Write a sequence for this structure.
């Protein structure tokens, strides 16, 4: 059944489209007309993905793009997204989904959304999660750990240096295609009778590493925060500087940081 993905301008959204397309169903991508890499729309269409152009505050266009869709994957809450737009964007996507009769919403969230501690991006994600949890349709919220991959702005920055973040912060980074596989699994999930309609899943990578170790694997320099050139937004530096490892019993995906970093290096040469 048709599924629409938001946030396809960024790495996680594009990975979700690829993973969902491999399941054989109809996949639609919703893209901001002023964003996205050159040639992205032709590449998507050449792979059989239907593309709709519009902004996330355009409920009418969203509802049209969601016509007869079963699932909407809201992957636009990227770490580089402005915190003050997250809740309004999610509310518009949800309203459009309800207007179109969509049955399931999959939210790509982030570990720490339930413990924001003055981080405006995580606090906004917490509000989005609360909105989704109260929605009158099936929902799956994926709280992913620090996500890295090809053509990702945060990964590219970490490939240069720690950028003002604490290098000893602990993460279980997840390769973007592993995150997307989790999204595809959430879309395919059959709901048994009597199961609560709202599910929250924490999903991380297979290995606990410090931020400095990840940066070194990516080829960047580990620089102490006091002397670093802060090239990332403050809310991103704060997320990178936190210990954000999931519980030991949380599901984990299989691509190790060593293998993921090797793929990035291979792609760069």
């Amino acid at each position: 059944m048709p599924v629409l993905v938001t946030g396809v301008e960024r790495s996680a959204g594009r990975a979700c489209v690829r993973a969902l397309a491999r399941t054989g169903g109809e996949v639609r991508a919703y893209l901001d007309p002023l964003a996205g890499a050159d040639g992205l729309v032709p590449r998507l269409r050449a792979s059989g993905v239907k593309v709709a152009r519009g902004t996330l505050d355009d409920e009418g266009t969203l509802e049209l793009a969601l016509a007869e869709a079963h699932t909407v994957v809201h992957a636009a809450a990227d770490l580089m997204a402005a915190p003050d737009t997250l809740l309004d964007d999610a509310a518009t996507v949800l309203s459009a989904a309800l207007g179109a009769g969509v049955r399931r919403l999959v939210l790509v969230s982030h570990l720490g959304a339930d413990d924001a501690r003055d981080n405006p991006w995580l606090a906004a994600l917490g509000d989005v999660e609360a909105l989704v949890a109260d929605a009158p349709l099936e929902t799956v919220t994926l709280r992913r750990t620090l996500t890295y991959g090809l053509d990702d702005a945060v990964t590219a920055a970490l490939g240069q240096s720690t950028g003002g973040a604490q290098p000893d912060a602990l993460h279980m980074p997840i390769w973007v295609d592993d995150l997307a596989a989790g999204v595809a699994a959430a879309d395919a999930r059959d709901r048994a009778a009597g199961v609560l309609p709202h599910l929250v899943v924490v999903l991380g990578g297979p290995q606990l590493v410090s931020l400095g170790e990840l940066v070194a694997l990516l080829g960047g320099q580990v620089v102490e925060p006091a002397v670093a050139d802060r090239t990332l937004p403050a809310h991103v530096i704060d997320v990178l500087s936190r210990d954000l490892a999931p519980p030991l019993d949380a599901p984990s995906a299989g691509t190790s940081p060593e293998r993921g970093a090797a793929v990035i290096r291979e792609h760069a040469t």
